Amino acid sequence: MLSFSLGYIKYKDTYNRSGKSWAWQQKFLELWNSFVNFAVPGLIGYYFVVVKWPLLLGGQDLNTADIILMFVLILGLFGHLSVMSYNITVGVETILRRVLDGPTHRG
Fold this sequence. Notes:
Layout: H1 2-18, H2 24-57, H3 64-77, H4 81-101
Helix pairs in contact: 1-2, 2-3
């Protein structure tokens, strides 16, 4: 419920700053992205508090996956997870397009 509330606040802020009206599909997509942007870090935070914290207190070390999850948690808490995932998607799409289109002639 908290992630939905935070996502709605972010959605309203984005919608108000755009200065134009959106179609319902764009409204739904922005609301969904904002919700997921806070739901994923919430689940990761829950994992760290419930599962990982007792293990760390017992002497277990952090591993690489935990560091990556902490990075995703920080991105999500500050609202940058959706931006980062979009940038990664565009980068992968560009790389795939270059690979699948083949070499181009450079005069």
